[in-house]
Amino acid sequence: MSEFLDDLRLERSAVVANSEMNRGRGLPAYRRELGFDPAAWLAARPAPQRWVDVGCGSGRALADAARSLPGHVETIGLDLVGYFGPACAGVDLVVGSVSAWEPDKPVDLVTAVHMLHYVGDKLAALTRMTSWLGADGLFAANFDASSIRRADGAPLGRKLAAALRRNGFHHNARQHRLTRTGNAPLHWDWRYLGADDHAGPNYTGQDSVTSHYS
Length: 214
What we know:
The chain has one domain: Vaccinia Virus protein VP39 (Rossmann fold). It has six helices and ten strands, in the order αααβαβββαββαββββ. It is of the alpha/beta class.
C-alpha cells in the first residue's frame, strides 16, 4: 500500500494541480457532459437558487448561467487551482479542496464536470457533495466506475454498482454520468487506502487518478 498517495500529496501531483485541465468549458459543454441544462433546471425552481460547481475551471459556465438568470441565482465555483476568468456579478469563485470546503447553507444544485477523475477518496467526495444539497436538491457529475478499485488494482465492479444504487444514485455507465436527489446520508462498505496518479488516461483520453479501497 506504500505506493498509494494520500490526499495531501495527491493535490500536489502534476496530474491534479494542472492549470490547463478542463479550464474553458462554458454552459453548452455542461449541457452536453451532464445531459441537461443547469441554468434551465435552476430557472424552474423558486428563487433564489444556489448552484455549487466543483472543479469549475475558469468559472465560465457559471458566468454564462449568471448572465442568463440575472438576480435569481447564486453561483459558487470551487477549484483546486485558482486560474479563474474575469469577475462576474453573481459568481463567487473559491480556491479550495472538496475535502475541506463546504457551503454555508444548503444548495439546489451541485455539479462536478470531469472533476472526480482527479480526486483521491472519491466515495468521501460523493458523501460530502451530496450532503450540501437541500432535501430536493440535485447532484450531477461525470463518473468513471473503473477508477474505484481494490488494493490489488481490480475494479470493484458489481459491488460498486450495487452500493451506488443502495445509496440512491443513478449511474449511467454508458454516458459516465452519476446523479442523485436529496441529502440523505451515504453509507459505504470500504476503507480508503490511497490514490494512484500513474493510472494513465481514462475514457476521456486524459491522465486520471484511481482510488483504492479495502
